[in-house]
Amino acid sequence: MSNIDTPIIPDEPRKQIWAVGGGKGGTGKTVVSASIGILLAKAGNRVIIIDADLGGANLHTCLGIRHPSTTIADFLLKKVTSLDELLLETPIKNLRLISGANDFLTIANIPFAQKQKLIRYIRNLNSDYVILDLGAGTSFNVLDLFLISDSNILVVMPEPTSVENVYRFIKCAILRRLNNALNNSRFQDIFRLATEARGNESVKTLYDLLERVKQIDSSVAADLKKKINTFSPKLIVNQVRENDNISLGSSIKDITKKYLGVDLDYSGYIPYDEKVSESIKRFKPLVTEYPNCSASLCMNLTMKKLLNGSKLSDGQEEVEESRNEEA
Amino acid sequence: MKRLEELNYYELLNLDENADLGDIHQAYLIAVSTYSRDSLASHSILSEEEKTNMLKRIEAAYTTLIDKNKRLFYDKEVLKIYVDENLRNRNISEISSKFVQHNGYGFQSKRDITDESDRGEKNTFKHTESTIFGGAHLKNIREMKGITIDEIAQKTRIRASYLKALEEENFEQLPAEVFSKGFLKAYAKYLGLDPDVVIRNYKFKEG
Ligand SMILES: Nc1ncnc2c1ncn2[C@@H]1O[C@H](COP(=O)(O)OP(=O)(O)O)[C@@H](O)[C@H]1O
Ligand SMILES: [Mg+2]
Question: What are the sequence ranges of the domains in chain A?
């Protein structure tokens, strides 16, 4: 088995795309994205961080940039021909930003072809890491950006609406992932049913979905099953105020596994910390301005877990072929 | 991916078949809080009835797994698996010295986190990790910063064994709380943490 003679040639390390999502706004996706980007850059990686929250862009603020000179809108409106032209230097070495737009554009209404082009260009960026700070909601465009990533990070906070949203987000993401993999109109009715199911019905439906696909084509069902098993988003619980909330991550993991069929990684929690809003008000990045505050320290610990568990998913999702959302 | 009805006791509690008593109890506590009436995690996704049913199953799983004979029977007759007893008992002596009573069941209150590496570490939050600025958390921070216990001991003139006991929340080995608080303050300060925040969150007693 072992081939001692053959020298081990390390693979050219592939660029990693990390997406930060989770549905609801205000949970801390942007703060977490910025911190992750900074910590990766400080560890010596070349990092590009993209504000993909079209309509609600504020990542630049968390990085200490008041008025970004270019935004992703310039790309979408074809004022520039590549994303490279949009790269802004940040106060942190090795970290560059593609700022989001705050005008009429919203992520949900970027046309299909535009999105495909955006994804293509994101994949071609020259960097060790690309971090995508996603906006709220579960529109196809948000989900697709989430799904092209190697590491899918979810940020939830201990609040009923946020928890509810994160389940919805996971469910929409898994169905979208399966749908993208399938891309076959034979199965569309089955998917429609699954999408409509709520709560406890969801997993039964996911299970039934596989069963029904199996009846039509068992090898397709096996592929889908693999797609579910290899989807392992990472969960961060942010704005924790009580110790009780820490086990919320374990509970969400349990329920997601049992009721949605998806195996989450619980990567860590970040306490609620006044220093977070203070740093934003002062236009200073949290983890460099207050490296010893409890939020920053937990950010570091979480980062360690994210890196340890960053076994890559089974490759980036192909969305090129799937045009299902087009009417 | 399995139907809910098909989950066995281990799967129900997210346990390994080699789980020891400490693991089982910890998993049980989390499971109960997950499906309790006012649980934040399940409120939007499960009905009251579904939660009650789940709690019943959790209770059944727990009472079986925590009882050596019932568990053996379950493994053998229901699951038809053979598990090496030694694997489960490997730190029983260590557990027994730290046993505390809770609901009439003995369990390991403080996990020895030094053996973290040889367990299925992925995602299992240790009991001691579930406190903001609990001992395990402080230890993580210290290690992350590359600071040794001895270094702190030297600089603060606090005995290394006390610092270690703070991290392990091993209260029997610590002097009276007023003194220990002083140690914790110095320790926190050395790590660059806000001593008052740490003191406020660290729990000197069970509960
Ligand atoms: N750990 C935290 N402690 C205190 N406040 C926080 C924390 N994380 C986020 N916030 C606050 O919540 C607000 C929303 O965070 P943000 O990252 O913009 O959310 P999102 O990107 O998910 O909409 C921020 O303005 C920040 O002040
Ligand atoms: Mg945001």
Answer: 16-167+234-321
User: A296 in ligand 1 pocket by Cβ < 6 Å?
Assistant: no
Ligand 1: residue of A276, A279, A281 to mutate (most ligand atoms within 8 A of CB) is: A276
Query: Complex ipTM above 0.85?
Result: no
- B191 part of a folded domain: yes
**Inter-chain contacts counted by CB atoms under 8 A, chains A and B:** 108
The domain that contains B154 carries what CATH number? 1.10.260.40
By the CB criterion, residues less than 5 angstroms from ion ligand 2 are A 29-30, 53
Could you tell me the pLDDT band of residue B206, with boundaries at 50, 70 and 90?
Answer: low
pLDDT per position as a tens digit, B62-103: 999 999 899 999 999 888 888 777 667 544 434 333 333 233
A205-230 pLDDT, tens per residue?
A: 677 788 888 888 888 889 999 999 99
- Residue B157 and residue B104 in one domain: no
Q: Which of B33, B44, B49 to mutate to test the interface with A (most CBs of A within 10 A)?
A: B44
CATH superfamily of domain region A16-167+234-321: P-loop containing nucleotide triphosphate hydrolases (3.40.50.300)
Say how far apart CA B19 and CA B21 lie, in whole Å. Answer: 7
Going from the C-alpha of A38 to that of each of A43, A45, A46, A285, the distances in angstroms are 9, 10, 10, 8
Question: Taking the model in full, what pTM does it have?
Answer: 0.80
Element (H, E) at A88: strand A88-89
Does the beta carbon of A295 lie inside 6 Å of ligand 1? yes
Q: Which of B42, B77, B112 is the last residue of a domain?
A: B112
Domain hosting B145: range is 135-201
Strands across the sheet with A95-98, in order?
Answer: A88-89, A95-98, A47-52, A129-134, A16-21, A151-156, A234-240, A265-271
Taking contacts as CB-CB distances below 8 angstroms, the residues of chain B near A309 are 122
